[in-house]
What does this fold into?
Amino acid sequence: MAIEMQEKKSNNFSKGGHGHDPEMFNHQEYSKNFDDDGRQKRTGTLLTASAHIITAVIGSGVLSLAWAIAQLGWIAGPICLIAFSVITWFTSILLAECYRSPDPITGQRNYTYMDAVRANLGGVKIQLCGAAQYANLVGVTIGYTITASISLAAVAKSNCYHKYGHEHDCTVSTYYYTVIFAVIQILLCQIPNFHKLSWLSIVAAVMSFAYSSIGIGLSIAKVAEPHHHARTTLTGVQVGVDVTGEEKVWRTFQALGNIAFAYAFSNILVEIQDTLKSSPPENKVMKKASTIGVATTTLFYVLCGVAGYAAFGNDAPGNFLTGFGFYEPFWLIDFANICIAVHLVGAYQVFGQPLFAFVEKLCSDKWPESEFITTDHMINLSCCGQYPFNWFRLVWRTLYVIITALIAMIFPFFNEFVGFIGSLSFYPLTVYFPVEMYIARAKIPKFSATWIWLKVLSWACLVVSLVAMAGSLQGLFESVKTYKPFNNKH
It folds into this structure.
């Protein structure tokens, strides 16, 4: 029974993780192998935490930055990139203080973002945090399905252009590739403890750096071409030339959402901090890691956004690796898009597994006597050893992947969806909860100078998130008007 296995694990865990009572060990041996909460000694360092942050932040959001800069122009574009960077860095510093409660160095550990909110704020805000987190996870998995299918279709399209010429009609349906991606995810989703497969996360991280670097390199090469001329302006796309006045406003709002999506990593910051060893103190190491991670990411993003805008100007495509601003070398375009797809195979699982675990724990707690939900059937696999097959996990996770794939087919709009996810998660997870927890922990008096400017920051970010959401939703509505479901081609 799965429940019996879990109870056994819990008992072992409380005794040090090896099934022996800690009293059998002397204090020195116990401290050497286990942390103050009885868990295996954490080994994370400044280097590993910085790497986790960079890996989490640099993702498919980088693909839309050239388009975002094109909507904002040379002045507002880089300023917005830097502003989001500074805000993300500042609030991550505040959030790093919330890993332990009540004392940031000796207090009890909070293993997840929701645990930190529960310890510092409590009440209905716990549910609000959970709703924001899991809505973000669902949105990201849908967004990744859209992006992966477009990238796979771009490989076929690139080969077509190379074979028949750039003027040839090489439109390709993305639905075939959406189905392929979904089938791969259905298989991977059946792995119950995916966090043990660190190799896939490492591969995904390498892929994200690879396609981002290729994008920057191709942009620089395009700018260096003889007679290259891309129409760029200080204020971005021009009213009356590129867009109408109304479109300019909505696109500007949507661009803010795209940038917000590119910087989002707060929903896993506490989990990253939980990997750090306790000496030096986790909060100090995490602050340094956040500084290094955000600074590195910002440099990368500015290069992608600025180089992409310089290469394409106001005509920058929504996704600068699948929008075919580049045609040659076709093999490098193919490789970049395959890197995107491979990265998103792993990234989908990184964001999906916490949601799977949450739902399965919720159901097992509510129906503990249901064998359909709680029973694991051990199956011997020649290549992997024993596999704990669970009927509920098979049905629920498969249905989830199918539903996200269907939504991706119905709304296959990359920029609009990315902007919507970014605007939805930026304010609550990146700004509101870190600020509110800091105010509560530091017992900052109401209407003091510090309280006022923190609230002003929070309210200003709320306004930015709302207008970004409005712009993304308007873009979705406009796209849906002229779109025929299940007839999408790129």
About this structure: DSSP finds 16 helices and four strands in the chain. The mean pLDDT is 81. The beta strands are 100-101, 108-109, 377-381, 385-389.
